[in-house]
Amino acid sequence: xxxxxxxxxxxxxxxxxxxxxxxxxxxxxxxxxxxxxxxxxxxxxxxxxxxxxxxxxxxxxxxxxxxxxxxxxxxxxxxxxxxxxxxxxxxxxxxxxxxxxxxxxxxxxxxxxxxxxxxxxxxxxxxxxxxxxxxxxxxxxxxxxxxxxxxxxxxxxxxxxxxxxxxxxxxxxxxxxxxxxxxxxxxxxxxxxxxxxxxxxxxxxxxxxxxxxxxxxxxxxxxxxxxxxxxxxxxxxxxxxxxxxxxxxxxxxxxxxxxxxxxxxxxxxxxxxxxxxxxxxxxxxxxxxxxxxxxxxxxxxxxxxxxxxxxxxxxxxxxxxxxxxxxxxxxxxxxxxxxxxxxxxxxxxxxxxxxxxxxxxxxxxxxxxxxxxxxxxxxxxxxxxxxxxxxxxxxxxxxxxxxxxxxxxxxxxxxxxxxxxxxxxxxxxxxxxxx
Amino acid sequence: xxxxxxxxxxxxxxxxxxxxxxxxxxxxxxxxxxxxxxxxxxxxxxxxxxxxxxxxxxxxxxxxxxxxxxxxxxxxxxxxxxxxxxxxxxxxxxxxxxxxxxxxxxxxxxxxxxxxxxxxxxxxxxxxxxxxxxxxxxxxxxxxxxxxxxxxxxxxxxxxxxxxxxxxxxxxxxxxxxxxxxxxxxxxxxxxxxxxxxxxxxxxxxxxxxxxxxxxxxxxxxxxxxxxxxxxxxxxxxxxxxxxxxxxxxxxxxxxxxxxxxxxxxxxxxxxxxxxxxxxxxxxxxxxxxxxxxxxxxxxxxxxxxxxxxxxxxxxxxxxxxxxxxxxxxxxxxxxxxxxxxxxxxxxxxxxxxxxxxxxxxxxxxxxxxxxxxxxxxxxxxxxxxxxxxxxxxxxxxxxxxxxxxxxxxxxxxxxxxxxxxxxxxxxxxxxxxx
Lengths: 435, 435
Hints:
The structure is a homodimer of 435-residue chains.
Chain A: H1 3-33, H2 38-45, H3 59-64, E1 72-73, H4 83-88, E2 95-97, H5 118-131, E3 140-145, H6 146-158, E4 167-171, H7 179-184, E5 191-196, E6 206-211, E7 230-235, E8 254-258, H8 259-262, E9 270-275, H9 278-292, H10 297-317, H11 326-346, E10 351-352, E11 359-361, E12 366-368, E13 374-379, H12 386-391, E14 395-396, E15 398-399, E16 409-413, H13 418-434
Parallel strand pairs in A: 1-14, 4-5, 4-6, 6-7, 7-8
Antiparallel strand pairs in A: 3-9, 8-9, 10-13, 11-12, 13-16, 15-16
Helix pairs in contact in A: 5-10, 6-9, 11-13
């Protein structure tokens, strides 16, 4: 028993010394180049833009390079904030898949969506019932490789191959920045991006994407084009209690949800559609068949386990000594982040934030305030290009122009890790003090 | 210790008796309706065709309904044959994923394909080196949700958004039945299906899909349009030692592989592309980003484990007391199936099969014969519509017309379970005797 601590200490000493060396080497490199995080930043940038743009530096940026601060990339809504909760859950959501399982293309069951895993479908229905955010009765579930694939499947299903011209696809600005490119990248003869729904005045049928709460600005949304012949796709990725008060179960023709924003499992690439019309569900299924011949079964099974854990955490919370539910945890983190953010922004006059009204949330049984997954930040005063301005302080955001809005706005993710969020708040506070 | 065997026997008796009851009930139902497998068949049919067609019965079919044989569906290449091998492997390929893992959209590493899991990329390279079926040096790996998504990504990457008209997409008949619909379902202005490569004589650039060994007929293929300005996509889904002699490592600009046909894991939806040109790899990555924002990480991790096991099984086989490698197992199953099939077909003059020449296989270090994943069966004599003819005997196949060929041909999967394959051989033998 004596030898163990001695060996332990020796090994520890070695590890510590090695860590110190690595740290010193990295620090030297970082201070020499001022580019310590540039590679990671560029790698992340590749996600939505061309890699080339990583290597261009804005004039403002060069002014501040001397500060040697690291880059805070909040361009994407990568939901790494949730990792902490799932680590706390330990083995509860660990999934084990034997090598011989789920080999077939097909899934058991009699669903229109022939690749839908029954277990996943069950947990989708259960979770919506627990949360009360969507009517599932009389709906066909179509599973997709994330909700992106389901948006495309819905465009395909709602358009007609025999139409004289592509059907117009609109969404009210500021709209999700990927809608235009997702709609047009294939140069499809079936559908075509037609811009801001509020300015849309073309006669005939159209598809309107209604995102509620909205990405980027977090406001609740309804259809903007008040006309007949409109086909609606409701993208409710953020209609969960941590982001917005749940007023009533959504009850639309075609509604989309995704694991990425509900539980934070973006890497699973799992989304689901609740579809009223059988023919639309069939056509969406056909799209996914031609696109990817189904959806990963491994991820469907994992998603089933995760959704089940979320539902159970809500049930257990109500019991004596029950832990905190997933939504309570997430709500608290979001509430704290928004509080900190509002404090910093209100401490100066450089920036402004959207203002939301509290409303009764049927899930929490009390009044709650919207606390969106993104900040739709406005640069006040002389700053005309907020994205470039913040980039000068090494805060990477997405410009309002990408959302069909003014460059005075930027979208900033609120779902990154605690560490990154704290750095962001500190950096924002420092900007207010300096400028 | 005495109580255990007694309890054991009682339980066994109960299970046996229950099984007997269920079996008898099912048998009664089946004999009453003659439709025992119809639901399953219709469900499977939904995969590639409209469900409605399930409920139409061909005139020939009604002639034989009295035989009360079950339906043998070999329309799709569902690779359930491989399940036996993976069961034998036990826990070796079992994967465990904790709830907090792989939450981000992004993968670590510096790949052009920003959602590519490093572990998966490593195992792809390793397996190709072990098998010797593809050059991986100087190639970028792009992972896809099955190789279907990669075909679409390649069409997108090889076409130009500024071209005056869509680029022609061709493949030599008989070609994979999904190529035309995959190319045209979006009515893309970028690319357009232009049919059989052998009849293609339009000037200007074109994309040729080269499938080798070919689906449906199993022959080795080279580009058929012998012209410049041709952009080639090599679909080598079946270039594995169980199906065809490995002559040399494939060395093309853009090559596609898939787990579905190499290891039999169709439900994972994992394919990969080996891409020489950096810009093409970038554009393919962009396509997948806009289509599905990446590829399931869970399935990539599982695929990595499965490919690793395949590589290791090849290494272990060479050691003393080493088990049978994955390819040896699969080769033997395929050899036996083709032998049985040839015996039945040669026993009459109703059908004929493609004839293949043996060649040296560098992987097995000996001469082997092609034994494709599909049979390209021809009905000889008066039978003009082979698909309808076999459907009359409740054998579901895919008609030659779907492959741009004569209705005298059908494609039949050779990758189904042992049970289904034996039934198929018996049914085929019975047809030869009856007709």
